[in-house]
Write the structure tokens for this entry.
Amino acid sequence: MNSLFNIVNRKPLNHSLTTKYAFTLAEVLVTLGIIGVVSALTLPTLVKNHQRQVYVTQLHKVYNQMSQAVELYMTDTRAVSLAETRLRNNSVELKRFFTNYFKVVKDCNGSYVPCFADEYKSLDGSKTINPKHWKCNVVFTLADGTAVCADSKIEDNSKDENDEDVVNGYNGINVISMEFDINGTQGPNIYGRDYFSFDIDARGNIVDPNKSKHENGVKPSELFGYVGRIIEDGWKMEY
């Protein structure tokens, strides 16, 4: 009985030690409001940076594919430089080069459209370019969606005879000139975002002959020279 009496009359536990607290509705709403403001301020920048990186990744892929194809071509033709190959000023050989070393899914027969978009803009939107009637030696769409326009370039003898390239037998030659859209007809169709250009020199190196324009203070709204800038910035689209 005494034990039962003690159980019945035992003092209740101190519930203050187990009390649980929660945020009030007002506190939750304030917190969500702060998160919303911060997101609104930072999310657009994050999205833009991510999209820039997507463009650069695709550009780098094209760059690597072209470098590897040129190297394989020189190996297969046993050439020390592209200047020794049939690619110089030879559109037939240029077409064979692309069809042999790339997976071509569409041949636009030298016309920009329909491989490229109907319209392109400069980076600042001040210029609009309509390439519907433009021509190249070859215009292809590749399996990854890249649109390529390429010309076999004629030798440039404008360099001084004492120039290092001339002394070494290269004569200042850029053998292939290329313009390309890394995602074909898809947007944004803007120079410097998804539309780029570069040349292939006699050594098989990818060069950007337009990069010097930006080095001399020309505004980024110019249509070419972006590949050189991206490479110099460590494969980042800083503009």
